[in-house]
UniProtKB/TrEMBL annotation:
Domain N-acetyltransferase: 9-171
Source organism: Marixanthomonas ophiurae
PANTHER family according to UniProt: GNAT-FAMILY ACETYLTRANSFERASE (PTHR43415:SF3), SPERMIDINE N(1)-ACETYLTRANSFERASE (PTHR43415)
Record InterPro entries: Acyl_CoA_acyltransferase (IPR016181), GNAT_dom (IPR000182)
Annotated protein name in UniProt: N-acetyltransferase
GO molecular function, one term: acyltransferase activity, transferring groups other than amino-acyl groups
Keywords: Transferase
Lineage, broadest ranks: Bacteria, Pseudomonadati, Bacteroidota, Flavobacteriia, Flavobacteriales
UniProt feature coiled coil, ranges: none
Pfam families assigned to the protein according to its UniProt record, in alphabetical order: Acetyltransf_3
Amino acid sequence: MTTLKGEKIYLRALETSDLDFLYLLENDENGWEVSNTTTPFSKHILEQYLDNAHRDIYDVKQLRLVICTIIKEETIGFVDLFDFDPKHSRAGVGIIIFSEENKGKGYAFEALQLINQYAVKHLNIHQLYANITEDNQQSIKLFEKAGYTESGIKKDWIKSGKNYKNELFYQLIHDVH
């Protein structure tokens, strides 16, 4: 298995042809709570983002890869490395599978495995971390299955309507020598 190809899915760089999928995803208000988004994105802004997506992770401190199915060659989501810190060998990881019909099929788990292998092999990552609201049981199960452990809680961290949600901090630490 190569670093970016698994049994069911593969990860690839963003392409200009991803504009419509990116537009739908970034403007889906259901995801705004966890992405700290409060306003929609225009296609023009997303085109500019895609024009710069080739920039090196060491420069922009983030990397977004597209999750595609092998059999159908279908774009189903994204996996991101963010807040990349080469000095301390760590990065945050986020993942989204866009449609309900593609959830629960193991795609997200495989994407986490692939991004983990990539991060260790190519970026010399010592740890990956994820921030998950405590009510997001699907993500908690996913990250725990992928070997992440809960190591902290940020109380009242995410404002949701008139209420606040706690955010759990998960880490996957590698013994890199």
